[in-house]
Amino acid sequence: MRNFLRSLPHVWSQTAGLNYLLVAVRYMSNRRRRLLNGTDYLKSKSGYAGRVTMPNMMREMVPTKVRCAHILLKHKGSRNPINRNTNQRITRTKEEAIAEMTRHREEIMAAEIRDREFRKKATNISECTSAQNGGDLGFFTRNEMQGPFSTAAFLLAVGEVSGLVHTESGIHLIYRIA
């Protein structure tokens, strides 16, 4: 879990064990700050419209769909330890998969054009059928993917590469496209 927290985008923070989104308040007007704090009220043509709360403001800021590409490395303990592209049984351990994925992530992060390097690696090494599309999964909502995968994908900024994400399917690297 700690590795996942370290891989959060710069707009997220951890204080007192609680994760929360940092809002760039210094660039906001005083009225907007009061709205974010829940200390101001919206008015409609008919008068009082109710208090503005942070969860309501956040709903507008958080996307309902994202588009990502991913690289999947399976291990013996994966849900279905068979490479979907070659139909061969997976024999690597979880530790070996983590070490291999860590090496691939470092190579991607060192590349000048991360998008191109990520897609090339996804095509060549990913053990998911999406490898044929450069790892592109298309647009998806939060409920369409496994929990840890979905959480990591929605936390990424566009153009950002995740840390290692562990799911029942194996070890993932995620690249947010849109």
From TrEMBL:
<keyword id="KW-0843">Virulence</keyword>
<dbReference type="GO" id="GO:0042025">
    <property type="term" value="C:host cell nucleus"/>
</dbReference>
<keyword id="KW-0413">Isomerase</keyword>
<dbReference type="GO" id="GO:0005829">
    <property type="term" value="C:cytosol"/>
</dbReference>
<keyword id="KW-0732">Signal</keyword>
<dbReference type="InterPro" id="IPR046357">
    <property type="entry name" value="PPIase_dom_sf"/>
</dbReference>
<keyword id="KW-0697">Rotamase</keyword>
<protein>
    <recommendedName>
        <fullName>Peptidyl-prolyl cis-trans isomerase</fullName>
        <ecNumber>5.2.1.8</ecNumber>
    </recommendedName>
</protein>
<dbReference type="GO" id="GO:0005576">
    <property type="term" value="C:extracellular region"/>
</dbReference>
<comment type="subunit">
    <text>Interacts with host FBXW7; leading to FBXW7 autoubiquitination and subsequent degradation.</text>
</comment>
<dbReference type="GO" id="GO:0030430">
    <property type="term" value="C:host cell cytoplasm"/>
</dbReference>
<dbReference type="InterPro" id="IPR000297">
    <property type="entry name" value="PPIase_PpiC"/>
</dbReference>
<keyword id="KW-1048">Host nucleus</keyword>
<dbReference type="GO" id="GO:0005634">
    <property type="term" value="C:nucleus"/>
</dbReference>
<keyword id="KW-0964">Secreted</keyword>
<dbReference type="GO" id="GO:0003755">
    <property type="term" value="F:peptidyl-prolyl cis-trans isomerase activity"/>
</dbReference>
<dbReference type="Pfam" id="PF00639">
    <property type="entry name" value="Rotamase"/>
</dbReference>
<keyword id="KW-1035">Host cytoplasm</keyword>
<feature type="domain" description="PpiC">
    <location>
        <begin position="63"/>
        <end position="178"/>
    </location>
</feature>
<feature type="coiled-coil region">
    <location>
        <begin position="87"/>
        <end position="114"/>
    </location>
</feature>
<keyword id="KW-0175">Coiled coil</keyword>
<comment type="function">
    <text>Peptidyl-prolyl cis/trans isomerase (PPIase) that acts as a key virulence factor by promoting host leukocyte transformation. Binds to and isomerizes specific phosphorylated Ser/Thr-Pro (pSer/Thr-Pro) motifs in a subset of proteins, resulting in conformational changes in the proteins. Promotes host leukocyte transformation by binding to phosphorylated host FBXW7, disrupting dimerization and promoting FBXW7 autoubiquitination and subsequent degradation. Degradation of host FBXW7, leads to stabilization of JUN, which promotes cell transformation.</text>
</comment>
<dbReference type="InterPro" id="IPR051370">
    <property type="entry name" value="PPIase_Pin1"/>
</dbReference>
